[in-house]
Amino acid sequence: MENSKALRSWLDDLKLDHPLVIAGPCSAETEEQVLKIAHELKNSDVNYYRAGIWKPRTRPGNFEGVGALGLKWLQRVKEETGMKTATEVANAAHVKLALEHDIDLLWIGARSTVSPFIVQEIADALEGTDKIVLVKNPVNPDLSLWLGGIERLYTKNIKKLGVIHRGFSTYEKTKYRNIPEWQLAIELQNKFPDLPLICDPSHITGRRDMIFDVSQTALDLNFDGLMIETHIDPDNAWSDAAQQVTPDKLKQIMKDLIIRKETDEEAEYNTRLGNLRAQIDIIDNNLIETLSKRMKVSGDIGVLKKQKNVAVLQSKRWNEILGKMILEGEEKGLSEEFVLRIFKAIHQESINHQEKIING
């Protein structure tokens, strides 16, 4: 994308003294619900009021949105509160209806981003628009696919672009609904530093009690804004109840977040240092998660050894692992001494796990 700095102009034009905030219910349920939430968010940091109109679910049978009727409710939100509006579009028909109802910001969802056919259809329908268009990361951690979506829109002369990081699906059970895989967002940021980057902590966490921490991490990594699902009665929401917060809670989150500004050399130093430390924190958390998985596998091996009455320490296997890791460590710029210390500690912890099982 040539002249990528121009991509940032729409965000700079807002002249915000806080991160961009997109908030509102996961789904527009009733006109009363949509308007009540909007009025409670009117005097807050919210810049765009979001509501899901079409809600394709993973499996059929659940609430899948009110459809085009909800766009009229968003028009009333703009008329009564002055807030700009936002919704997800998944095909050319959605685009046509959203533009007819003067929706200010459109985003392409994670399930749509995975299909270049869908993204191209949406890009063709939006050609030349002056609306803001954001692209959520694909469900799977594929940076090329994510950037490809942006490029398809850019080639259609759509210049008000940005991306939304909402985490990635996994078959493994973790504390997140969708694993952040922050390194992909960081890599995207490094490739295109002027492409506005928004974090969606609601979909990353799937839990309202984790939204603040993920939002803070995003700001520490220099994200430009947040998309947070907000509902007047979250527990009884018609979709994604567990991850929505009340308007009052959203206001408190925005008040408590530490926002780092680059105003002079010292502030720039602190911002860059905070960014790098946030990256270290993410990697450290991944290390702990990986080590935990390794010890679980070691425990499974211990069960097998107990069944066959096999000794815990298998010297040949251990020497093979050590030799292989030393070579791989050297290729990655790690000293032999460092690799030895790390893997001896890991090996000892594995032995401890297996001995507990065998002697249990």
UniProtKB/TrEMBL annotation:
EC class name: isomerase
Domain called Chorismate mutase: residue spans: 267-358
Key word Transferase present: yes
Entry-linked SMART domains: CM_2
Gene3D superfamilies: Aldolase class I, Chorismate mutase
Cited InterPro entries: Aldolase_TIM, Chorismate_II_sf, Class-I_DAHP_synthase, CM_dom_sf, CM_II_prokaryot, DAHP1/KDSA
GO terms of biological process kind: chorismate metabolic process
SUPFAM superfamilies named in the record: Aldolase, Chorismate mutase II
UniProt GO molecular function: chorismate mutase activity; transferase activity
Entry EC number(s): 5.4.99.5
Keyword Nucleus appears in the UniProt entry: no
Lineage: superkingdom: Bacteria
Keywords recorded for this protein, A-Z: Transferase
Name this polypeptide is given: chorismate mutase
Protein's organism: Abyssalbus ytuae
